[in-house]
Amino acid sequence: MLDWRVCSRARLSRDARFDGKFYIGVLGSRVYCRPICPAPTAKEKNCRYFPTAAAAAEAGFRPCLRCRPEGCPGTPAWMGTSNTVARALRLIGESGLEDGGVEWLAERLGVGSRHLRRLFIRHLGATPIAVAHTRRMHFAKKLIDETDLPMNQVAIAAGFGSVRRFNAGIQKMYHRTPSHIRYLARRTGIRTGDHYCFRLSFRPPYHWQAMLDFLAPRATPGVELVHNSVYSRTVSVSGFNGYFEVSLDEHDALLVRIDFPDPRSLFGIVERIRAMFDVNADWSSITNTLRSDRMLAAIVNAQPGVRVPGCWNGFELAVRAILGQQVTVRGATSLAGRLTSEFGTKFHGPNGLTHLFPAPDALSRAKLTSVGLTSTRAETIRALARSVSTGRIKFEGVVNSEEFLRRLCEVPGIGAWTAQYIAMRALGEPDAFPSSDLGLLRASGVTSPRELESRAEPWRPWRAYAAMYLWRMAAGEKSVVKGISRKQQVEVTSPEPFDHERLAM
Asked: Any catalytic annotation for residue 311?
């Protein structure tokens, strides 16, 4: 339920922190807008508030062409008040309803389709089909505005079965033809070929440098690169290979450049990048919890907007986590580079992007000791690769994270630390917490994982974000404590000098 008083204050102040949390339907124009819409403010009596864009569309409102609701930050799955709805949103985000409609979705979740529809209407104000349809329409609008794809390819990339359905859907939702919308966008500097450019909005603040500080030392040579404040990596989707680059854009957004030969994969690629860079996080909710802790308050205030880095591929991250067990970050990165060079697929990309990370089949039978791995670590990676190849472990479409972690820990050599780290970055679990991590223990000043778990109880459900701050504290970087008073530095730095390279992740 939306509190109209809160929504009204956010609308009148155009507060960017509320962007994507609700939508405003204007009765006179019959359009729905973001809270930051620059259009003249409508009178309160002419406004209606909706929890999702799909709910506004179901009520008969069409998207505003000025503030472009399709460009706002998404609502994280964990923001739902129902665990079933949260899991359903995650599945819809990964594949829409292409695998079998609402009945398939309900079966995956272990509930009836009618009950699932009731839950969606109660929590989101729209049915699962309406939510999936609105997401597809919004992505089609982004393709029209931000790429030079022909309209028939836009229709395919957005998941429409035919150009006729695409044209009819755009006309119905926007009251304009796709060609007219593209004309109104007044696009300049459009790149041609297989290059596409998107802007992914986030709710400020966003600590981009902290994201790069985490990803840079862990970037697999040949696969990933952080250079001049730009992150780039190679990707493989549905048998096609390409790469993308991500940098910080103005106006609270990330600029994503994608070079990929198959436009049908663009929706999935963009959604995975959203998750990878945690652009949907609701910082205001997170900071209210973390700032209540005396140990975290100083660094959270000094370095707001630290996000939890996700990953492009869950299997790749799991292998990287295994490589990082009981070795330095630098050592694990070196091993990952050797592994990729020996067993990965060659790729001809710019700026040193030379390989694709090895697939599970390639590692399930590989002689991994040849790249410097111990026999125990090599067997752990091979066992994980076999489990992924046979489908016993799947990193996509995870409905029950506890069951996923249980299966993961059945792999010899994978324990609680590795499983929690994978849940934190591959599943996007905001409350995942590798309590046995040496860096977390030293930064928090406790001596045992059990004591740290007890200490971290007040941080729920944002323990993953607390972990990111603790790791930055443990690193002892000057940039972390810059601007904090001497008294506050005593509170946020480790009790003794800490070697950053001992963070085994």
From this structure: no
